[in-house]
Every structure is written in structure tokens, then in C-alpha cells.
Amino acid sequence: MAGRGRGRGRGQMTFNVEAVGIGKGDALPPPTLQPSPLFPALERRAAPLPGGEEGEYMLALKQELRRAMRGLPYFVKPGAPRRDIERYSDKYQLSSPVDNAIDWNPDWRRLPRELKIRVRRLRKGRTAPLIPKQHVALDKEETIKKLESLEKKEEEVTSEEEEEKEEEEEGKEEEEEEYDEEEHEEETDYVLSYFDNGESFGPDSDDNGDEAVY
Amino acid sequence: MTQAELRLCSLLLQEHFGEIVGKVGNSLLRTGPRPLRLLVGDTGLLPDQVKKALCVLIQHNLVQYEVQPRGSVEYEARSERILRILRYPRYIYTAKTLYGDPGELLVEELLLHGHLPMSCAVARVADRLTETMEDGKTMDYTEVSSTFVRLADTHFIQRCPVVPETPQSAKAPPPPAPALAIAEKDMYVVPRLSLVGKGKRRHSCDEEEEGEHKAKRQKQEGGSSETPPDDGIYWQVNLERFHQHFRDQALVSAVASRMDQTSSEVVRTMLRMSEVTTASGASHTQPLSSNEIFRSLPAGYNIGKQVLDQYLALLADDPLEFVGKSGDSGGGTYTVSDVGTRTSWTPPSPFPHPSLIPLLPHRFGSRCARIFRLLLRKKHLEQKQVEDFAMIPAKEAKDMLYRMLSENLVSLQEIPKTPDHAPSRTFYLYTVNVMAAARMLLHRCYKSVANLMERRQHEMRENKRLLEKSQRVEAILASMQATGAEAAQLHEVEEMITGPERQQLENLKRNVNKIDASENQVDETIFVLESFIESTTKRP
């Protein structure tokens, strides 16, 4: 009973279709059986973009802004993923961005206290190991300044490591390693990016060793 | 917060601030105000990364924090502020047209860094300007700071809320987060600073020396950092003022296109006089007497007082109501008193809904636009009447109406003749629900900008290898030119990029430019629609 009437007549609707303007015998558009296509065909071309000096200047500004923002310290780059074991080549890799250092100095008074990333070790404690290095030739002074700024960053990293991983020695070793790395980087003849771990040749020998024993 | 807005906000954050900030912002937008621990849990990032991201977002005013009564601090993302990132080029360009290069660079620095103290901003801008000047010249700080003061006087930049002064002997522990506040009257007060100095230029020849000196100086300064005299006073860009300026510009150009140049100048003068006195959201400016207007007209326009009055009368009578007459001088009749005619004129700032109309011809055709405009004027029309008034044959009119109906730009209104709503005895009227149509178009705009951004990022990703190669070649060329290489060697290096690759690069550049220009264009439409919706919802 409910199905009666369907199919008879073109498509009965609850209101009088003539009032809206669909006359008898007019072809209605076919019913839509699927979602509209992802890229519908353009019926008419879009209007041309406004050119002129203003448009071009704003375009250049937009691209400049994008480029500039990438260089600012506010562009937070994710830290390098931690490897499972320390590798020999880590010494020669270029230093990756450290996770926990903040490159700019916000005004901490304006921010909630919980957001402050704390630096544990005081700077004064760190100046002691630097004293013997001051006898180095003058052209190394620049390296020392670089090292100090790196050390400051390293302090922040290592302070967090201490808290979280309780490995003090690793922190000190990393500092000294990085310290040495700077010297090595300047003196070595080898192109560092060509450095090959040699890992791919390693593990098989162990297995063979077991079998070869008679 | 529609889905389209959310998507656009997270794309903007990711593009300008990186993945981590994008994730944090995205999570905050979707879940609403959150304390730090829950945020760390939601995003799955390291706590330090989340803290860093929040610092960046708060610095740029994109996230605000609030201390809850139980002591925790909740962070909330401000979606409408994030969407403004699209409009940064327009703000900077406006500052350039109004205040020249120092103004442009000041606004740019403030936008890039979120908020800065005045001394810092002036120093940076002076350095940048010095670099672009010829050798030997430097930019003085005074010129830059005078531009700064002018920007503050016209309210284009404002002070950030400050940390309240804590008494020295505070018995209670300090609160977990400072409650920043600022009084309205202090917002534009420039501190008395004596900024003396010149911009520094980076010399390429004796760079090493300077590098060493700088490094030494930094070391010394690091030990005893002197607090700058305007410590704690930060400045930010006042976006609402810029929006007011854009609205005024649009109003003036609308008057100019409807009437003539002189009347637009009159309106521009009125708006300029009431710039600073009107609150940004007001629907009417303060009343201005015609004497004042006459006095403030720009020098080049020597139209007589009578002519000005005629123009004002014309503007007031215009059906679009740009200017309204809001009073006579003491008494009901318009008389010339001894003090001079003092009728007040108020230009309203509603956004006329004719601005919706230009969008339509591009999608549906000019005839549809004609029907739409007709419906806007006559409010409700029957099918037959539409055909008659628009002078379009019935079949086409029907087709266009149904298409617009299916897109929800027009709607049907039923008016029953009988209580039982029988279809044969009911009027069906076509009408335009302006607010709904405006909101729908706005949603579409957000979606289009998000699509444009994704497409642009896709194009860049596809050609990443090629872009990197071209950058390397440019770097090599630059270094070779610096060390003085011959033309043949330079040519050889240039040959490293083959012909088809060059073609591909050209295509890429053209496409990216087109997409960027489109984004700017859509943002203008977004501004118009948002202003319209805002101004209409505010009025009771």
C-alpha cells in the first residue's frame, strides 16, 4: 500500500509543483546518485587575478615573509631522533638541532612559570675546564667563543638528560666529545659526508664464527 | 569553529612555525582550553617540545593563558588571530603606503616577532635600512623612532598588557602565571626614550675582525646585561585599527564609484578626522560639523563652502546611506546662525551587502547576478515576478533559480493562504537570506584558501629535488663571482641546469606565484565577508 503511487506520474511531491514553476511535461534534471565529483568541470573561466603594482608587491611580500619566518628562532624544528646505541660516526655528524634549548630569550616574567625550561648548571662552574685552553694560539679564540655558546646549549640538554636519564657521565662525555669534534672538524682532510659506517659489513662474521668451530 | 577554519588554522601554523607548533596548535584548537599536562598527553610530543611551542605561540599572541581557580594554568588558542596571518602582507603594504619604508619595516618586525620593546624594534629597523642604503650612509635612529611615535599616535601599534607590579614583601607565593593587564589610556603612550645611535652595517671585507669583536663584546655583555630603559614595555601591532583603515578605504572607493571623486574626498576627510576618536566597532562615527569638515579638507581642494554643503546634502540623501544627517543647529529648522552652520554629519560604517554581488557573475553568469540583485532589493518575489522584473525568459530564469537554490544562495519562503497549507493554495516566494549566504560563502573561502595552500605545498614537494639543485647552483655561482671567475666558467656552471629543467622551474615559479596571488585575493574577500557578518551581528 505504501508503494502505490510510486512510479505513476513522474515524481509526486508534497507541494504543488506548478506554483514553483515546474510545468507539466518539463524535464527535470536527473537525480544525483553519487557524491559530486572531486574536480567539477569549470563552466566558465575564472576572472583574471588583479595584477598591477600593489598585487605584485604583496605577492613578493608574502613570499619574503614565508622565507623569513623559516629562519627565525620561532620556527621550531624537531630534534634529531635518538639512536638506539652510540655510533662512532656520531662524532663526525654535523650537530643536529637540540630539542630542549630555546634559541631566543622570551621575557619569562610574562609567561607562566611552568613553561620555563630550566638550566640547571651555573655558567661559573663551566669556566674551569676552559682555562687551560686559553694558551692556544690566537686564531683559536673564535672557536672557543663558538664552543662556549655550544656548551651553554649543551648544558641545557645535559641538565635534562641528568634528570630524566640519570647518566651524568654521558653528559660530560658528550660535551667533551663535541668539544673535540670542533677541533677535528677543522683539521681533518676527509670529506665528512662521505664517512661510511662500515656497519653493513659487520654482523655476518659473528654467525659464521659459531658455525666454523669444529 | 568550522572544519574549514580548523584546517586552515593548522595549515597556517604548520607553514609558518613548523611541525611541532602546528601539532600543538591543532590539538588546542580542536579540544579547547587545556592545561599543560593534558596537552602533552594529547599531542604525544615531548614535554619540552610542547613548552617551546607554547612559548612561541604566546609570544605571537596566538594562544592566551588563564589561571584557573584551582591553580592550574589553561591555554586556549585564538583561531581568529591565527587566521590573520594570511593578512600580514596587506598590513605591511598599508604601512608602507602610509608611513614609507621605516613604517613598513617597523610593522614587519613587530609582526614577525610578535611583540618587541621599542628600543629593540628601532635598532633592528635601522640596521635593515642601513644595509639597503649606499655605502657610507647610515640610518639614524631618530627618523625611525619618529615614525614609531607616529604609528603609536594613530593607534596602528599599541602597548601590550604589562606584568603587574608585585610588592616586594609578598607573603603568598607568586602566582603560577602573571595576570597581564593594561589601562585603556596607557595603550598608546610612548615612553620617553632618548634613542641615540645609527644603524650598523655588516661589512663583508673585515667580517672576521668584526666577528671577533662582536664575540668578545657579547661575552662581556653576557656577564653584565644592562637592562634597556624601556624594559617590560612591549609593543604589538593593533590589527583592529588596520581593519578600520581597510573598511574606510573600501567605503571611500564605493562612494567614488557611485558618485564622483570630490565626494569621495569629502568622505575620506570625514573618516580621517574621526579615525582616532571612533571605537573600532562603532557603527557611526562621532558627529562632525560641516565647518570642521570644510576646515580639514586637503589643501588642493578649494571648493567653496556652498559646494561642500551641496555635496553633503547629496551624500545624505543617497539611498545607500553613506552619510547621515544627525541634527541641526539649535532648533528644528536649518538656519544659518551667527556661529555658522553647524549641522552634524555622521558617516555610518555598515558594510553594504552589494559586496556579495561581485562574487556571483564569476560562478553563475551575469544573468544570475541580475536575479540575485533583484531579490536583494525586492526581498521576496514569486517565480513569475522574477521572470518579469529581470526580463529573462522563463525557462532560463527557472534554471538559474534552481541552481542558486541548490547552492543555498536563495531559499523558498512559504506563505499559506489556508490553514491547512495546501500546496495549491500557498505562495512560494524566493528570497535571499543574506546572513546565511554570507556565512556560507565565508566557509567556502576558508576552504579555498586551505586548498590553495595544500596545492602550493604539494607543488613544492614534487619539485623539491629540482629546487635544491638550483639553489646549490646559485650558491656556487655566487661564490665564483665573488672570487672573480671568468665568463666561461660561469657559463659552465649554469649549464648544470638543463633546458627542460629550467622550463620546469619556470612553470613551478609561475604556478606558485599564481597560487600566492590567489590566496591574497581570497583573503580580501574573507575580510569583506567577516566585516559584514560582524557589523550585522553587532547591531541589535
Automatic annotation (TrEMBL), chain A:
<comment type="similarity">
    <text>Belongs to the eukaryotic RPC7 RNA polymerase subunit family.</text>
</comment>
<feature type="region of interest" description="Disordered">
    <location>
        <begin position="148"/>
        <end position="214"/>
    </location>
</feature>
<feature type="compositionally biased region" description="Acidic residues">
    <location>
        <begin position="157"/>
        <end position="189"/>
    </location>
</feature>
<dbReference type="GO" id="GO:0005666">
    <property type="term" value="C:RNA polymerase III complex"/>
</dbReference>
<dbReference type="GO" id="GO:0006383">
    <property type="term" value="P:transcription by RNA polymerase III"/>
</dbReference>
<feature type="compositionally biased region" description="Acidic residues">
    <location>
        <begin position="204"/>
        <end position="214"/>
    </location>
</feature>
<keyword id="KW-0539">Nucleus</keyword>
<protein>
    <submittedName>
        <fullName>RPC7L polymerase</fullName>
    </submittedName>
</protein>
<dbReference type="InterPro" id="IPR024661">
    <property type="entry name" value="RNA_pol_III_Rpc31"/>
</dbReference>
<dbReference type="Pfam" id="PF11705">
    <property type="entry name" value="RNA_pol_3_Rpc31"/>
</dbReference>
Automatic annotation (TrEMBL), chain B:
<dbReference type="GO" id="GO:0003697">
    <property type="term" value="F:single-stranded DNA binding"/>
</dbReference>
<dbReference type="Pfam" id="PF22536">
    <property type="entry name" value="WHD_POLR3C"/>
</dbReference>
<dbReference type="Pfam" id="PF20912">
    <property type="entry name" value="RPC3_helical"/>
</dbReference>
<feature type="domain" description="RNA polymerase III subunit RPC82-related helix-turn-helix">
    <location>
        <begin position="8"/>
        <end position="65"/>
    </location>
</feature>
<dbReference type="Pfam" id="PF08221">
    <property type="entry name" value="HTH_9"/>
</dbReference>
<comment type="similarity">
    <text>Belongs to the eukaryotic RPC3/POLR3C RNA polymerase subunit family.</text>
</comment>
<comment type="function">
    <text>DNA-dependent RNA polymerase catalyzes the transcription of DNA into RNA using the four ribonucleoside triphosphates as substrates. Specific core component of RNA polymerase III which synthesizes small RNAs, such as 5S rRNA and tRNAs.</text>
</comment>
<feature type="domain" description="DNA-directed RNA polymerase III subunit RPC3 winged-helix">
    <location>
        <begin position="361"/>
        <end position="432"/>
    </location>
</feature>
<keyword id="KW-0539">Nucleus</keyword>
<dbReference type="InterPro" id="IPR039748">
    <property type="entry name" value="RPC3"/>
</dbReference>
<dbReference type="InterPro" id="IPR055207">
    <property type="entry name" value="POLR3C_WHD"/>
</dbReference>
<dbReference type="GO" id="GO:0005666">
    <property type="term" value="C:RNA polymerase III complex"/>
</dbReference>
<dbReference type="InterPro" id="IPR036388">
    <property type="entry name" value="WH-like_DNA-bd_sf"/>
</dbReference>
<protein>
    <recommendedName>
        <fullName>DNA-directed RNA polymerase III subunit RPC3</fullName>
    </recommendedName>
</protein>
<feature type="domain" description="RNA polymerase III Rpc82 C -terminal">
    <location>
        <begin position="146"/>
        <end position="336"/>
    </location>
</feature>
<dbReference type="InterPro" id="IPR013197">
    <property type="entry name" value="RNA_pol_III_RPC82-rel_HTH"/>
</dbReference>
<dbReference type="InterPro" id="IPR008806">
    <property type="entry name" value="RNA_pol_III_Rpc82_C"/>
</dbReference>
<dbReference type="Pfam" id="PF05645">
    <property type="entry name" value="RNA_pol_Rpc82"/>
</dbReference>
<dbReference type="GO" id="GO:0006351">
    <property type="term" value="P:DNA-templated transcription"/>
</dbReference>
<comment type="subunit">
    <text>Component of the RNA polymerase III (Pol III) complex consisting of 17 subunits.</text>
</comment>
<feature type="region of interest" description="Disordered">
    <location>
        <begin position="199"/>
        <end position="232"/>
    </location>
</feature>
<keyword id="KW-0804">Transcription</keyword>
